[in-house]
Design goal:
Elements lengths: L1 H39 L3 E4 L3 H12 L5 E3 L13 E2 L1 H8 L4 H7 L1 E3 L1 E6 L2 E7 L10 E3 L2 H14 L4 E2 L2 E8 L4 E7 L2 E7 L1 E4 L6 H5 L4 E2 L6 E10 L7 E6 L2 E9 L2 E6 L13 E12 L3 E3 L3 E2 L2 E3 L5 E2 L7 H17 L6 H24 L3 H8 L8 H13 L12
Parallel strand pairs: 1-2, 1-12, 2-8, 5-15, 12-21
Antiparallel strand pairs: 3-7, 4-7, 5-6, 9-10, 10-11, 13-19, 14-17, 14-18, 15-16, 16-17, 19-22, 20-21
Helix pairs in contact: 2-5, 2-7
Amino acid sequence: MKREGLSTFVSSTKYMEIDRTIDRDININRILVNKFRLKNNANILIAGAGPSGLSAAIFLSEAGFHPRIIDKKKEISPYSKALALNPNTMGILQQYGLAEIFLKKGYKMPAVSFRKEKKLLFRNEFSKVSHKFPFLAILPQKESEELLLEEVLKRGINVEFSTELISLEENGKGYLSKIKKNGNVEEFNADYVIGADGAHSVVRKQLGFHYEGVHEDNHWQLYDVELETDLPNQETHIVMHKEGGIIMIPIRDNIWRVAGKVEKPLEYLPEGTKVVQIKWETPFNVTHHVANGLIKQNAVIIGDAAHLHSPIGGRGMNLGIEDAYLAVRLIKEDRLNEYEQLRLNYLRNTVKRIKFVTKIMTGTSFFIKFARSTSPLGFPIFPFIKPALRKFALGLDKTDAVNMRF
């Protein structure tokens, strides 16, 4: 009887332990499920519906979130602005089934040529890099934004244009935002805020951040222009003169992007190139800035809200899409607080390199002007630095701590 009682007791105790273990596991699973639901039901506000903001909306949707995205402009800008998607960006877009869609709209640029006036100095071919996308995908930013917007809408996310963020206020768990729409101001509680609202970012200012760096008096002129030319029409041409350099990028149908710091850049086109019609022109000032901070509590700034630089290297839109990818990845993993540590130094170093290359093209010091005017004499060294220039042009010169290469 004693043995039977002991056996019954042991058996009973064993089952009680099993029951407790099961209850514990159920409770843990319930907590994890609730946490997952809470996270995926989080209110996420994206301020800015440019390439960075639209990309963030797509990435968040894929991660199970349904963000709210607003922009004070009425619609997508009709002007082309950025043109190139680099290999890193194409690798990111491929994960969301978008790479082929972008390639169908644009074309693959295989090389960049460096010229001293009309004379070809050397051609740097992108196919020599080891990457799935060894080229630049060229299409106007307007068309890139239209493709991204179409994908956002397909995912059931409404983009609220003519809707402006007025202010942000920390409320313990996230941010209370005030939003102006149709003349009325409403309040919206956001668990996360992504500031993709450009160079004059309200989010950056509300978080107390500012651009670091010296304001430069660096005026450029930009044209989208129809040209008659015998230059190869599927590669970028960097044309050096003593006075400075110009960049020529074919868009499509004999329309080229021409930009430069020299006065009247169209007068510095290579011999044999004729202007047919100017489609669009605008002056702009080039500065090189990175914000002194990127994140505060659950609010983060990305794209032009976080960094500005010259168009040399075509990094602007690409860096913004990378920013969006990393920020969403960290939100999904509850690690957004690590964003600044992972990204800020990388952005500073990248902008520093862009500034250095820009100075070579546009600098006014005696040494730089002399180097530009005598550049053919120095070209024996170029076979040795071509790989570095190639990687710079493709955005593959450096990678950050979370391996942004694909």
